[in-house]
Design brief:
heterodimer; A: 465 residues; 4-stranded parallel beta sheet; 10 strands; globular; B: 280 residues; alpha/beta; Nucleotidyltransferase, domain 5; 2 domains; 5-stranded mixed beta sheet; 4-stranded mixed beta sheet; 8 helices
């Protein structure tokens, strides 16, 4: 394993900002271990995309992002020993491997009473409490911490339930929103009460508002920054975005996250001005249309780049949307605002989907990105252990194929003139896992990428002919 | 003097060479084995001998398949997806979908009238979706691989075999034997199981007629029947379904040379020598 780690080449990033992420993650993992030693702050196992960072930050709780730590183990190609430990405890390899890795690690740490030997980046600190959630259809999230409690019976759990109305083409979701909103507000208030009990502090609602406003401001900044990636040549690809997802998902409601995107935006503007792209001769613009990446194989993005392909956009980890377009009702209560923002995010594409016959929100988002970022092809990743993302990807591609047909279409311009255009958009589905390296074959993956590049080339040739 | 082009397809199980003049003038098919570089030389030598031309008469050589980088004399490497598309289109101009069942993987390719790839899907993760599945079961039942097709066509009541895993399927076949199930039923069940897996993968892309089946799987009449049954449509099978990749490689080589001439540029080629390759 040590030899394998040594041989593994470091991935190239296109932006300085993305390159700065590694040390940042290392520091916030080390920071939680330090905080535990010093005992000044409470530590909470947490999941991303729960809109509760503001609450935790306002109450000086340090989140330990367990999915992030598992991803780090994967990226360092050091997850296998934790996965095997979890298997030996009776957990199946076909469960979420993030959860498996975390459970294997927790069990080992609790057994030793200290970090497992050579724990990646100093290891994952023991939490004071855990905040689980069953939202976004990710069933392991509801069960992971319950299972971890077997090894840490003294660590309490609060389960936060964050539903949102499901899409229905013939029903306006707004009719149901007040009901959902009321429920989510109660859930978030329950979390606040739980954290107050655990920390012995009362929530300062003015402080919470500051954190919420900072997050909202960061959301808008991220949108503006990522929109710059529509430039030709593209100044930043998905390979880098798998780094810059860190401030979006693990550092929200902090000034550091806002400053990070301020710097990134400036860097991208400079690159655009100098016409500096991720690749020298940009031939193909691809959309990472779904699925978490293989954290141990992010070098595959460089491989795409070596073929002249770049990813100006991705749906994965872009967990923000333009706040101004959400029509969030005005409120004086930051908790109510958080609940409205949650609902606004998850129903963001509903109206647009309804405007298209047979439309569906996830597909609508893909179509929007394909048009906005001038995309030539779509790549998805089926990670065998991630059912949340995996389910529906092929169906989404089928829906896309109905729109991006392999025949020329006539486009009606604003001037009333019709022009012929080709809209065909081939797709590639990669198969592997998020952190289980035994599911990955570099030869097979790159063979598929080569074939996909050939396909893009032949589609481009057909357009010329 | 005619221009000659060679395509060499090093697959996981078989290595194929096609030498193309105005028509196909020689084909060689041999087992790949472990020493791919040595075998590439050997099959090329054999193909040249069958074609009756010296090596230096080959204008351009394209290699393809999993072992395409192990062909020391190839001027260019091209993926098997592009080569199968081109090769099938040359043999069956009406083809719009290619389903290739090889020894190690299976793939479906959507092509246009010029033999260009429009979309594709590949299974490379599991033996249960490739020809290896049939090989293992043939071995388990003691039926020669080349007879599996005809044996299965005798079945009146195909067994139901799991399509999840080759190893489990092998256990099911053994259990079926123990229960006295006729061998043709077990073999037909195995073919249905593989066909089910391949068709489910192929349906990820729009399947447009004519559908052509290639690869070693296309030489198995029982498997062809099973795939056809699942798709509810007739399939076309080339006379020699193993050579489409190599033929496509040779055709693409010709296209590359013609294009280069048109543009007035010269293409780099390797020295036409079949070196003895030292294998450790």
């Amino acid at each position: 394993m040590a030899e394998q780690k040594k041989k593994h080449k470091k991935r190239r990033t296109a932006t300085r900002a993305a390159a700065s992420i590694g040390p940042m993650v290392k520091e916030f993992i080390a920071g939680t271990v330090r905080a535990q030693r010093e005992g000044a702050q409470k530590l909470a196992y947490s999941f991303i995309v729960c809109h509760h960072e503001e609450i935790l930050r306002a109450m000086d709780v340090l989140p330990i992002w367990t999915e992030n730590f598992a991803g780090v183990c994967g990226a360092k190609r050091d997850a296998e020993r934790f996965l095997q430990r979890a298997e030996s405890l009776g957990f199946s390899r076909s469960l979420c491997t993030y959860a498996l890795c975390g459970l294997g690690f927790d069990h080992w740490r609790e057994e030793l009473g200290e970090m497992p030997p050579d724990a990646p980046w100093g290891g994952q600190a023991r939490p004071d409490f855990m905040i689980s959630t069953g939202q976004i259809l990710c069933d392991p999230r509801a069960k992971w911490y319950q299972a971890a409690q077997q090894y840490m019976p003294d660590v309490p759990i609060y389960n936060i339930d964050l539903p949102y109305p499901l899409y229905h083409p013939d029903r306006d979701h707004r009719e149901e929103l007040p009901y959902y909103h009321k429920y989510i507000v109660e859930e978030l208030k329950g979390l606040i009460a739980f954290v107050e009990e655990q920390t012995g502090k009362k929530m300062d609602y003015e402080r919470l508002w500051e954190r919420v406003r900072l997050s909202d401001k960061t959301w808008n900044l991220i949108e503006a920054t990522y929109d710059l990636r529509s430039a030709i040549p593209c100044p930043m690809g998905t390979g880098d975005a798998m780094n810059t997802m860190v401030p979006i998902n693990f550092m929200m409601a902090t000034q550091d996250a806002y400053d990070f995107f301020l710097n990134l935006k400036q860097e991208l503007e400079e690159k655009i001005k100098k016409k500096e792209g991720v690749v020298e001769n940009e031939k193909y613009r691809l959309l990472w249309g779904g699925g978490l990446p293989s954290w141990f194989a992010l070098g595959d993005f460089n491989y795409f780049n070596s073929k002249g392909a770049v990813f100006p956009a991705e749906t994965t980890y872009r967990m923000v949307a333009p706040i101004a377009e959400m029509n969030i009702p005005k409120t004086d209560d930051p908790v109510e605002h958080l609940a409205w923002r949650w609902l606004g995010y998850w129903t963001f594409w509903y109206d647009k989907a309804r405007q298209r016959k047979g439309g569906e929100p996830d597909v609508e988002r893909l179509i929007n990105y394909i048009e906005r970022y001038k995309i030539d092809g779509v790549v998805m990743h089926e990670a065998f252990s991630c059912r949340t993302w995996h389910v529906g990807l092929i169906w989404q591609l089928h829906q896309l194929a109905k729109i991006y047909k392999p025949i020329p279409v006539l486009r009606l311009g604003k001037d009333g003139n019709k022009t012929q255009a080709w809209r065909e958009n081939p797709s590639l589905v990669l198969e592997s896992d998020i952190i289980d390296i035994t599911s990955y074959s570099e030869v097979d993956t790159r063979n598929k990428i080569d074939a996909f590049i050939d396909t893009l080339e032949s589609v481009a040739k057909s357009r010329v002919d | 003097m005619a221009d000659y082009f060679a395509g060499i397809d090093i697959g996981s199980t078989m290595t194929k060479v096609v030498i193309l003049g105005d028509e196909i003038i020689a084909t060689v098919i041999g087992p790949t084995g472990v020493e791919q570089r040595r075998l590439a030389n050997k099959v090329m030598e054999e193909a040249l001998s069958r074609a009756g031309i010296p090596f230096e008469d080959i204008t351009y050589i394209v290699s393809t398949g999993y072992g395409r980088i192990n062909v020391p004399f190839a001027d260019k490497q091209v993926t098997e997806i592009s080569c199968h598309a081109k090769g099938v289109s040359r043999l069956v101009p009406a083809a719009r979908t290619v389903i290739d069942i090889g020894g190690q993987d299976s793939k479906a390719i959507r092509i246009d009238a010029n033999g260009r790839t429009k979309d594709f899907v590949m299974n490379d993760k599991c033996a249960a979706g490739s020809g290896r599945f049939v090989e293992i079961i043939a071995d388990c039942l003691g039926v020669p691989l080349q007879e599996m097709g005809t044996v299965s066509l005798k079945s009146k009541n195909p067994a139901s075999i799991s399509s999840i895993c080759t190893i489990w399927a092998q256990q099911e076949v053994t259990a079926g034997q123990a229960k006295g199930r006729p061998i043709p039923d077990l073999v037909a069940g195995v073919h249905r199981s593989l066909a089910d897996r391949v068709v489910r993968m192929a349906r990820r892309i729009p399947l447009e007629k004519e559908i052509v089946l290639t690869g070693g799987g296309a030489k198995n009449a029982g498997l062809v029947a099973a795939v056809s049954h699942m798709l509810q449509t007739a399939l076309l099978v080339p006379e020699e379904p193993l050579i489409t990749g190599a033929l496509g490689a040779a055709s693409l080589g010709r296209n590359m040379v013609e294009k280069a001439i048109k543009k007035g540029i010269s293409l780099e080629t390797k020295k036409r020598v079949l070196d003895v390759v030292q294998i450790l």
